[in-house]
Amino acid sequence: MRVVELDGFGGPEVLGIGRAPVPVPGEGEVLIRVVAAGFNRADLVQREGGYPPPPGITDVLGLECSGTVVALGPGARRFGVGDAVCALLAGGGYAEYAAVPEAQVLPVPGGVDLVEAAGLPEVACTLLSNFAHPELPPAGSSLLVHGGSGGLGGFAVQLGAALGWRVFATAGSEGGVEHSLAAGAEAASNYREEDFVEFVRERTGGRGVDLVLDVVGGSYLQRNLAALAVGGRLAMVAALGGATAEIDLRVLMRRRLTVHGSTLRARPVHGPGSKEETVRAVERTVWPLIESGALRPLAVHRVPFARVRELHERHGDRTVPPGKSVLVLGE
């Protein structure tokens, strides 16, 4: 099969198309013939050497894919050969075939084509595992999303709006602001031109928001806390702006704030806090919103498989269009 190979670690030039044996599905796994693989910023970090796969997992990039089930491993029984599916992966999506634990596989939701579905599992699982901590906030809650023009941020805006929340977003360009508004944000701000703490305070009457979804990290920590309402929560899913910061614990205690961080890749397949638990919660909560039309993936940027290096280059220099990018194997 064709795979995207890494010739060491570094820039997009280390990516190339190579050949590898088709994986054999093990106990409880299914083999998927991949139609498309979702792109995530974590792919860039792994390519640069900063995000190694867990022990025993392929070093082929790709944390999500869509395609058709072509074989079942021993004990796999939910899906059948020929089923259209998408899947959350620990790695291996940038390839023509992927062997995946059946617990991490989802049916393609109605109203979404197979290529669009490739960009859903990672973002949906990441967001739901952070939003529902331990339960989803009620309708009428407020959310600030950083990076509303990206694949994760744009979907976060859509999901929050579909759940009946007041959603605010930041982006680094006017195009990103427009994308955030189109996704369902009540208001969006260009963070290069406006302080997001003041932006939030103005639109919430000084109260702040109940939840902040952050991909920036250290350099935003103090301002994120300032943007929260009393009893609010900061959910951190990346640290693009630095991994360390100082915090005044008295602020957390006085205002009853919570700082929560998480990743998906290192979680166990089964058990409490597992990928299986998150995937099934997504199927129960997010898939019905998609199928009803309350939540609809926007601006899927489709890139032919052979142009993987170009995709990484454009994401690295931030010239890719707003929205989610996917690599299409048949193109």
TrEMBL record:
Q: Outline the extent of the Enoyl reductase (ER) domain.
A: 10-327
Give a yes or no for keyword Ribonucleoprotein in this entry: no
**Keyword Transmembrane part of the UniProt annotation:** no
* Keyword line: NADP, Oxidoreductase
This chain belongs to the protein called NAD(P)H-quinone oxidoreductase
What is the scientific name of the source organism? Leucobacter muris
**Lineage of origin:** Bacteria, Bacillati, Actinomycetota, Actinomycetes, Micrococcales
